[in-house]
């Protein structure tokens, strides 16, 4: 898939891995529609090849409005829609049952609201954005060449999809579901020349890891990551997105991006 003069929708594109992806796509000459609650930083926002849509990823109507706005923008710019990169997501931590050791309070089950929130953002949000964007993507003229490719869907899972830690039941459920969806989606969309791939990052440098104490950071680096023994960099995630977009034979796969790391059973 060519990147230059093509439009990509990036959810969660105002910060973290999503923002790194937006910047990488812009360097490649792409047009980027950013869907997020807050606007991206000025260096990305002021580009004439960026359009921002304030979007709550749990609101199906808001997603549809942003997709329709993005599609209209492609008509103005002449840069056809070429894919969706689903970076919007939340990290959730909650134990299945919390027990007061003093016995003063009864055991408290996992919050159903927390469970629903994780699913609504990480799983249903990704599904809704993808299905609504496909209305337009399957109508795009295919690229010239033997493959006749129309576009690419990229989803973001996590190492927790495979080895979730205590307190990650809801989070792991959402990320595991995205990994499980990848192959059937690729098979479903093959008739339209649309590829699907999922990235499963390990531990990446972020505001969340910055907030961890030194002991926790050291444990994650030394016990969970093989080489290079450090947290992943957002630019390395963006590099992987670019590779997926540009390599036509990447399809139906969940790609681990982890420095050969595996999350330990507990920190």
From TrEMBL:
Chain ranges of the Ketoreductase domain: 6-207
Entries under SUPFAM superfamilies matching the protein: NAD(P)-binding Rossmann-fold domains (SSF51735)
Transmembrane segments: none
Pfam family, one: adh_short
GO terms assigned for molecular function: oxidoreductase activity
Keyword Plastid: no
Alphabetic keyword roster: NADP, Oxidoreductase
Entries under InterPro entries matching the protein: KR_dom, NAD(P)-bd_dom_sf, Sc_DH/Rdtase_CS, SDR_fam
PANTHER family: 17-BETA-HYDROXYSTEROID DEHYDROGENASE 14-RELATED, SHORT-CHAIN DEHYDROGENASE/REDUCTASE
Protein family according to the UniProt entry: Belongs to the short-chain dehydrogenases/reductases (SDR) family.
Protein name: 3-hydroxy-acyl-CoA-dehydrogenase
């Amino acid at each position: 898939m060519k990147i230059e003069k093509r439009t990509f929708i990036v959810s969660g594109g105002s910060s973290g891995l999503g923002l790194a992806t937006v910047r990488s796509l812009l360097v490649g000459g792409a047009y980027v529609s950013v869907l997020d609650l807050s606007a991206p930083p000025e260096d990305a926002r002021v580009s004439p090849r960026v359009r921002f849509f304030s979007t709550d990823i749990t609101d199906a109507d808001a997603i549809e409005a942003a997709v329709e706005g993005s599609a209209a923008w492609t008509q103005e710019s002449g840069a056809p829609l070429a894919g969706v990169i689903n970076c919007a997501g939340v990290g959730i931590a909650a134990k299945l049952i919390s027990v007061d050791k003093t016995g003063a309070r009864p055991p408290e089950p996992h919050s159903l609201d927390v469970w629903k929130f994780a699913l609504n953002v990480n799983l249903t949000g990704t599904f809704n954005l993808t299905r609504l964007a496909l209305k337009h993507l399957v109508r795009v003229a295919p690229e010239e060449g033997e493959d006749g490719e129309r576009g690419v869907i990229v989803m973001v899972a996590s190492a927790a999809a495979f080895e979730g830690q205590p307190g990650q039941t809801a989070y792991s459920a959402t990320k595991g579901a995205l990994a499980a969806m990848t192959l059937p989606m690729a098979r479903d969309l093959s008739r339209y020349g649309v590829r699907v791939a999922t990235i499963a990052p390990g531990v990446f440098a972020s505001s969340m890891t910055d907030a961890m104490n030194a002991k926790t950071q050291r444990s994650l680096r030394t016990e969970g990551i093989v080489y290079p023994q450090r947290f992943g960099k957002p630019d390395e995630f963006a590099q992987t997105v670019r590779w997926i977009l540009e390599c036509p034979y990447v399809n139906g796969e969940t790609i681990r991006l982890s420095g050969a790391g595996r999350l330990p059973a507990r920190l």
